[in-house]
Description:
One of its GO terms (molecular function) is DNA-binding transcription factor activity. Belongs to the LysR transcriptional regulatory family. Keywords: DNA-binding, Transcription, Transcription regulation. It comes from Kribbella shirazensis. The chain is an alpha+beta fold. The protein folds into three domains: about 5-80, Orthogonal Bundle (Arc Repressor Mutant, subunit A); about 90-165 and about 270-300, D-Maltodextrin-Binding Protein, domain 2, CATH 3.40.190.10; about 170-265, D-Maltodextrin-Binding Protein, domain 2 (3-Layer(aba) Sandwich). It has helices at about 5-20, 20-30, 30-45, 65-90, 105-120, 140, 205-210, 230-240, 250-255, 285-300; strands at about 50-55, 60, 95-100, 125-130, 145-150, 160-170, 170-175, 245-250, 260-265, 270-280. A five-stranded mixed β-sheet has the order 4-3-5-10-6, sandwiched between helices. The protein has a three-stranded antiparallel β-sheet with strand order 8-7-9. α1 packs across α4 (about 65-90). The relative contact order is 0.15.
Amino acid sequence: MADIELRELRLFLVLAEELHFGRTAERLGLTTSRASQTLQALERKLGGRRLFDRTSRAVTLTAAGQALHDELAPVVTGLDNTLTRARARAAGPGVIRLGVLNAASGTHVLNQAVALFEETHEGAAVRIVATPLTDRLGPLRRREVDLTVTRLPLDQPDIVVGPLLSQNDHRVVMVAIDHPLAGRRDISVEDFADYPVRKPADVPELAEANCPSRTPTGRPIVPADVEVSEISELLLLIAQGRLIHPTVAPFAEHFRHPGIAIVPVRDLPPSSTALAWLRGYDNPARDTFVATVEQVVATQPAQHT
Length: 305
């Protein structure tokens, strides 16, 4: 019998949790067809026993699948905890890998927390790791980072949302300097329906909060049909007028561009950023850093809209 790979077992466990191939593929950074092929390979290696019943309407665990899940889940969790601790030891005493997409929000709190953490814990250090624009949670789920800075809302069952780093970040849209919206004092979500809009798909609830699927009057907002993998590429597409980009003021100000105008959006609520980490995995250094961030946050003045 062919050897079973750990990635196949991880996919099985995620699919057992999600019961949806699309969401499973998204969490693991795969295509849906690749996720299906991986499951089929696992089922073949287990003697052809079906682990899921699949119809056009639903995915459900079979009795064999449920039994495998119940025995396998604690084993893989234990293995992951062991690997996490081994990576932490290899990285050095108290080294935290912090995933950051950009330095636009929460920088003030983070800088204070990093300084305090490194000053008060001998051998402690925070290593910044850039996270991809199109796979913001991927490094966290692959355990390439211990924590990540994320914009809210975030509602993922495998991820814990921790202390807030920023609040009341106002919504804006980035458009080309000669775009019809560029000269407006502010705009409405209703205006989004008139133009191609960037709407990333890697975190659906965040994408929907940033750019709803429909306007208040029910008009569809259609995502721009372009691939964007880097912030520099995104800025160029905006400046060329090929799309508009709903975002928050700190991001827009941090990435100011001579060919881009920033226009406030009056009818979307402000946003926040927070620390987040993977649920169910022990990491004492991470927990110490989170406590340090909470200590710093408690000293900050209240933020108002």
